[in-house]
Amino acid sequence: MVINSQGSINVEIEAGKKPAWLSMLEARQGGQNVNINEI
User: Which residues pair with 2 in a beta bridge?
Assistant: First the structure.
Protein backbone atom coordinates (compact mmCIF):
# COMPACT_ATOMS: atom_id res chain seq x y z
CA MET A 1 0.00 0.00 0.00
CA VAL A 2 1.28 3.41 -0.94
CA ILE A 3 0.17 6.58 0.85
CA ASN A 4 1.37 9.78 -0.79
CA SER A 5 1.68 13.28 0.63
CA GLN A 6 -1.82 14.19 -0.56
CA GLY A 7 -3.37 11.46 1.54
CA SER A 8 -4.73 9.39 -1.34
CA ILE A 9 -4.39 5.64 -1.10
CA ASN A 10 -3.64 3.29 -3.97
CA VAL A 11 -4.54 -0.33 -3.41
CA GLU A 12 -4.36 -3.20 -5.87
CA ILE A 13 -6.81 -6.00 -5.14
CA GLU A 14 -8.49 -8.75 -7.09
CA ALA A 15 -11.80 -7.70 -8.62
CA GLY A 16 -14.71 -8.44 -6.31
CA LYS A 17 -12.48 -9.12 -3.30
CA LYS A 18 -12.31 -5.79 -1.51
CA PRO A 19 -11.06 -6.46 2.03
CA ALA A 20 -13.02 -5.33 5.07
CA TRP A 21 -10.25 -3.00 6.24
CA LEU A 22 -10.47 -1.14 2.95
CA SER A 23 -14.22 -0.65 3.33
CA MET A 24 -13.70 0.69 6.84
CA LEU A 25 -10.94 2.98 5.62
CA GLU A 26 -13.18 4.38 2.87
CA ALA A 27 -15.99 4.97 5.37
CA ARG A 28 -13.64 6.72 7.77
CA GLN A 29 -12.36 9.04 5.05
CA GLY A 30 -15.82 9.70 3.65
CA GLY A 31 -14.86 8.13 0.33
CA GLN A 32 -12.61 11.03 -0.61
CA ASN A 33 -9.05 10.68 -1.90
CA VAL A 34 -9.36 6.91 -2.08
CA ASN A 35 -8.32 5.41 -5.39
CA ILE A 36 -9.02 1.75 -6.00
CA ASN A 37 -7.27 -0.07 -8.82
CA GLU A 38 -8.94 -3.42 -9.44
CA ILE A 39 -6.90 -5.98 -11.35
Answer: 10
How many residues are given for the chain?
Answer: 39
∠2-3-9 over CA atoms, to 5°? 85
Q: What is the pLDDT along the chain (39 residues), one digit of tens a residue?
A: 555 545 556 666 676 777 787 777 777 766 555 566 665
Residue spans per domain, the chain: 2-38
Query: How many whole angstroms separate alpha carbon 31 and alpha carbon 37?
Result: 14
Q: What is the DSSP letter of 39?
A: -
**Bridge partners for 12 per DSSP:** 37
For residue 36, what are the β-bridge partners?
Answer: 11
